[in-house]
Amino acid sequence: MRTVGVVVNPIAGMGGRVGLKGTDGNVEAARERGAEPRAPERARDALAALRERAPDTEVLAYGGEMGAEEARAAGFDPEVVGEPESEETTAADTTDAVRAFADRGVDLILFVGGDGTATDVATALDEVDVRKTTKSSSAAHQNASRSEDAETPVLGVPAGVKVYSSVFAVRPEAAGRVAATFEDTEAREVNDIDEEAYRGGEVRTRLRGVVEVPVAEDLQSAKQVHAGSTDALAEAVAEEVQSGVTYVLGPGGTLGDVADALGVDGSPLGVDVYRDGELVVRDGSEAEILGALGDENVIFVSPIGGQGFVFGRGNHQISPAVIERSEVRVVASPRKLDETGVLRVDTGDEAVDESLRGWTKVRTGRFEERMMKVV
Q: Where in the sequence does UniProt note compositional bias of the Basic and acidic residues kind (predicted)?
């Protein structure tokens, strides 16, 4: 019988739809803008998939909304290994949970959050590893201990605004399936970005750790930053905008080039709304974008390099409600598509995701298009 330790960062992802590009240090600001938690629901989806595939799984969880509540909602009777120190959960709670799971010898740690949570998990495992090594009194004993106490594998359920690391499943349900069925693990990187720089329009990534992760097809790749020239593509898109149509421009360098071609000062990593020669909304939240939509709306998005996500990573402001009122057009350089393989969606609304799946045209140049499958 497999044992799985579950820890949830309940505030992960709250800053996305309200335009904060991250929740670290901005929980109160997110709440003031009307943000609602999304991590608990995604945790329940992952655990429901785990229970469907492996109902006899023994689940250990951190207390309250950090895992125990979600596990019970999915039909498990978890063993609670600890409780948050206060109502406002912290990174210390996450690291305490991970240490407890590692000490109990779980087969997998299933965590729910974003890159910040992944960093906390990796940090805690490093501390456990150092502690075990320090206890070894000789080289021979150390080698034996390392063999017996191999690093606990982890798997991320994507719930944060930034999910760039390669330790996450592509969707919550996929995480549950992988947790139930994996047979082998491999080393993968945990990367995080500087949120203050990110809010200012600059991506600064740092390697924060290397962890063991289940080997599976349904894991996302690390984000790739550089993906080829898009100048001709951007100019072609700008030339084809129509009067009276409202255009929603997603984040990223490709759409930043489009904004430059339109002659407007767009937000490099935010979502902008353009109509009739001017920005109606710059770096908007979901509510601001919805308020700016007109009778005819077009969303321009570009997939994340290496991962292929069109919706659900870094652009939560373009919510299911925005998508349902708009035509979606995908643009990308040929090099980015070559490195991506397939496109992915994870809006949090299964009906909207299903409407986006299938084959779609991706604009790759002034005249060129490529058919890509959305999964």
A: 29-43
Place of tokens 């605004």: 161
How far are the Cα atoms of 31, 55, 148, 214 from residue 180, in angstroms, in the given order? 35, 9, 23, 10
pLDDT digit of tens for each residue in the chain (375 aa)?
A: 899 999 999 887 665 554 455 555 555 554 555 556 788 999 999 999 999 999 999 999 999 999 999 999 999 999 999 999 888 888 999 999 999 999 999 999 999 998 889 999 999 998 886 666 555 444 444 443 333 456 899 999 998 777 878 899 999 999 999 999 999 999 998 987 665 655 555 556 678 889 999 999 889 876 655 445 678 888 889 999 999 999 999 988 889 889 999 999 988 788 999 999 999 999 999 999 999 999 999 999 999 887 899 998 888 899 999 999 999 999 998 888 888 888 999 998 999 999 999 999 999 888 888 899 999
| Beta pairing partners, 374 | 343, 358
Residues 215 and 205: their CA atoms lie apart, in Å, by: 24
Tokens for 274, please give them. 């353009």
CB contact at 8 A, 60 and 3: yes
CB 19 within 8 A of CB 271: yes
3-state secondary structure of 375: coil
Element containing residue 76 per DSSP (H, E): none
**What DSSP string runs through 150-163?**
PPPPEEEEE-SS--
